[in-house]
Design brief:
This protein is an alpha+beta fold. It has a domain of 53 residues: Roll (2,3-Dihydroxybiphenyl 1,2-Dioxygenase, domain 1), CATH 3.10.180.10. The protein is built from two helices and four strands. It is globular. The termini are far apart. The mean pLDDT is 78.
Length: 77
């Protein structure tokens, strides 16, 4: 008999304002798990969204995030 596999979805987003973005995601059904100056973690079911401010990302990675351009970076440890 086949069993259903559980799948988690993790989404990392760069935002201009972590607090404002956290409020938005709370309003559409996500729940803030932890919120700080440099990040926020929100969850709904098996979906987790991590919010990072643009400036913190640039500072830690030495990459410049182009204005209005999508950027995808996956880092696995």
């Amino acid at each position: 008999m086949a069993t259903a596999m559980s799948q988690e979805i993790w989404i990392n987003l760069l935002v201009k304002d972590v607090e404002r973005s956290t409020v938005f995601f709370n309003e559409i059904g996500f729940h803030a798990v932890s919120v700080g100056n440099e990040r926020a973690k929100l969850a709904i079911g098996q979906t987790t969204i991590l919010l990072f401010p643009d400036a913190a990302f640039e500072k830690k990675t030495y990459l410049v995030v182009p204005q209005n351009q999508p950027i995808v970076v996956n880092i696995f440890q």
